[in-house]
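Please, structure for the following, as tokens.
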Amino acid sequence: MATKKNTSKKAPAKKSAKGSKGKLDKLQVADGKSEMDQIKDLEDLLGVKQTNPFRTTNKAILEERMGEMTLTDLQTMAIQVGILPSGNKLTLKNKIVRAFKSHAGAGAGYNIGFQKPLVDPSSDAAAEILRISSEGL
């Protein structure tokens, strides 16, 4: 029998660090806040919890909250939203998500106008809302 010949491949030459300097200039500084944290902060400032039975306008936040709930908590939430609280945990979650998508101002993509502003325009909270919205999400 013929013996197997051992061959080794040479590693490709490494690029110098000078070429990557242009990439470092393009990096943005992270402030440690995720997009979800910014959305939660903005909703707290705008008072979404008082105007929306789901207490959020973001589907991901709703699903995160429902993931932490027990069946009894989900049934209580369904009653508050106006859904018949029947079925197991999975079907109840699906009912709540469907209601969230169809609810005006929550998941449907439009908001109902308010008679008075939620936040006094001259307050610190209004300045914070403007700062967060100018940064973008």
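Residues 8 and 110 are 63 Å apart (CA to CA). The helical segments are 21-25, 35-46, 48-51, 59-67, 71-81, 89-102, 124-135.
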